[in-house]
């Protein structure tokens, strides 16, 4: 997780920093084969050179970016979790619980769906 240390250090609010680190640590423990990378100044997890899931932070939330195909795939679960979302990202308010089963569903979908993908993003 050393790859994310500079990103995490840049999060001013200690609670936000702790929450982001908690999410990243959970993913790394659950999916040890995923690579941790910083691209476009954002932390992300990749598999065989293809994007699986990425994150960004703001004052109000941590944003999860799994690609639009994945958001469409889990849209009902996003609504059930009560998260605000667009076609490209999901906003998890800092004070709301993280729906780890939802994160798992998105990551599992992307790992499976992109198993034979040879590009970073879906075409």
UniProtKB/TrEMBL annotation:
InterPro entries: YdhG-like. Residues 16-111 form the YdhG-like domain. It holds the Pfam family DUF1801. SUPFAM superfamilies: YdhG-like. It comes from the Bacteria. This is YdhG-like domain-containing protein. It comes from Anaerobacillus alkalilacustris.
